[in-house]
TrEMBL record:
Binding annotation for pyridoxal 5'-phosphate: 120-121, 257, 322-323
Keywords tagged on the record: Aminotransferase, Biotin biosynthesis, Cytoplasm, Pyridoxal phosphate, S-adenosyl-L-methionine, Transferase
Subunit structure: Homodimer.
Statement: the UniProt record of this protein carries the keyword rRNA-binding: no
Protein name in the entry: Adenosylmethionine-8-amino-7-oxononanoate aminotransferase
Cytoplasm is among the record's keywords: yes
Underlying gene: bioA
Reactions that this protein is recorded to catalyse: (8S)-8-amino-7-oxononanoate + S-adenosyl-L-methionine = S-adenosyl-4-methylsulfanyl-2-oxobutanoate + (7R,8S)-7,8-diammoniononanoate
Positions carrying N6-(pyridoxal phosphate)lysine: 286
Length: 451
């Protein structure tokens, strides 16, 4: 459908009347100029007025090979000519089976079974329910709580918020959430001491939790190597491996939430691969379909699968499922997405590019209000601070992050802030030229807004 230019006003009016956007203050949004996307071309998004923008957030951390990719479009069309959807409850379908095999083959060797859902939050909920029931089935029902990390983000459903660590959400929903134990995620920039001291201190706290409460903890859930929504916080090398070892020693399952980090975002196929970590459960979503359709997955070890395996009357069945679980269109495009990873040798591209841009941060590093630039692969956060020396933060009400991203939009790049952290999460297949242009836009926006 092509929109005539005189339709755009009407469309904006209908947005105002009928649509409630997620994670959006509607008052601010509706007071601003509309941003209504009509189409995508590679790493660019084009709005209904014909303005073109870099997709600097990969449509919020999803897009991989660019928009409107002929191969991915074709995979959906081909599948559509067969069937769009049939149920996975007590039945199966061709692409869901083939994709499960593919996922098992590329994830760490501990992971042997794939359970589908439709969003990252659901993939997390499923991992939590599986871990909880696993210990019950093992005759250890007292292992029924979760250890989670400070500032963690695992999605917006009630269970996922419960194991999250963002006070903003916890304060809002307090009584609705189930209680958990929380241990700090190492954040060297905000730690008073060296990176090594930060790592040691966080490990010590983790060890204490496990020593004191390991008998009541079903699982530890974390975002491996890099916390996303917390503000792109990069874990010091070695912490993840040590965490895995401590979990094993204390009979605590390890749940890796790779919804943001998975599929090459950090340079390795999965962030766990950086340290050869083999979790018991892994949540995947976001880039699984190349940013095309909502498919998510929870991968599990054989041991967990077997705790649910038995004769019908034993009632060991995992009573959980969603209507669109294993959707054929989504699984078909996910398979084509993974084919493209291989054909374009995408991980090498991400690795090369992430090194190539290291020197490009130099001008930005000198800016008066740039406190820290954190990068792993093509997962990037730029923390703005009021005072570089003291690392004093800007106040929430200053909305500095919001203003920088708004200015970047005028300059032709879309992204969203995480508080005072500006994120850059380009589609992984971005060219060096386009990535350099994106960094230049962010630098200009930061300068204009903060200096
Ligand atoms: C985005 C995200 C989720 C939630 O995924 P949805 O598909 O938005 O529900 C969970 N965990 C992490 C680490 C994420 O970044």
């Amino acid at each position: 459908m092509f929109l005539q230019s005189d339709d755009t006003e009407t469309l904006w009016e209908k947005n105002r009347q009928y649509l409630w956007n997620p994670f959006t203050q509607m008052k601010t949004y509706l007071d601003d100029e509309p941003l209504i996307i009509q189409r995508g071309e590679g790493v660019r998004l084009v709005d209904i007025h014909g303005n073109s923008y870099y997709d600097g957030y990969a449509s919020v951390w999803l897009n991989v090979h660019g928009h409107n990719h002929p191969r991915l479009n074709e995979a959906i069309r081909e599948q559509l000519d067969q069937i769009a959807h049939s149920t996975l409850l007590g039945a199966a379908n061709v692409p869901a089976i083939l994709l499960a095999e593919r996922l098992v083959s590329i994830t760490p060797p501990s992971l042997r079974k794939v359970f589908y859902s439709d969003s990252g939050a659901e993939a997390v909920e499923i991992a939590l329910k599986m871990a909880f029931l696993y210990w019950k089935r093992k005759g250890r029902p007292e292992k029924n709580t979760f250890l989670c990390m400070g500032n963690a983000y695992h999605g917006d459903t009630v269970g996922a918020v419960s194991v999250g660590g963002m006070d903003l959400f916890h304060a809002a929903y307090d009584k609705l959430l189930f209680p958990t134990l929380r241990t700090p995620y190492p954040h060297p920039y905000r730690f008073d001491g060296t990176e090594q001291e930060c790592l040691d201190s966080c490990l010590e706290k983790l060890r204490r939790h496990l020593d004191e409460s390991g008998d009541t903890i079903a699982a530890l859930i974390l975002e491996p190597m890099m916390q996303g929504a917390a503000g792109m916080i990069r874990m010091p090398a070695g912490f993840l491996k040590k965490t895995e070892e401590l979990c094993r020693q204390h009979d605590v399952l390890l749940i890796a939430d790779e919804v943001a980090t998975g599929f090459g975002r950090t340079g390795a196929m999965f962030a766990c691969d950086h340290e050869g970590v083999q979790p018991d459960l892994m949540a995947l979503g976001k880039k699984l379909t190349g940013g095309y359709l909502p498919v998510a997955a929870t991968l599990t070890s054989d041991a967990i699968y077997e705790a649910f395996y038995g004769d019908y009357e034993e009632m060991k069945t995992f009573f959980h499922g969603h209507s669109y679980t294993g959707n054929q269109l989504g699984c078909a495009v996910a398979l084509a997405n993974l084919d493209l990873y291989e054909e374009t040798d995408l991980l090498s591209h991400v690795d090369r590019l992430s090194r190539a841009i290291l020197s490009e941060w130099e001008p930005m590093r000198q800016r008066r209000h740039v406190g820290d630039i954190r990068q792993l692969g093509l997962m990037i956060g730029i923390e703005l601070v009021k005072d570089r020396k003291t690392r004093e933060s800007f106040a929430w009400a200053d909305a500095v992050g919001v203003k920088v991203c708004r200015r970047a939009r005028d300059l032709g790049l879309l992204t969203r802030p995480l508080g005072n952290v500006i994120t850059l999460m380009p589609p992984l297949a971005v060219s060096q030229e386009d990535l350099t242009a994106m960094i230049a836009i962010l630098d200009q926006a930061i300068r204009e807004v903060t200096e």
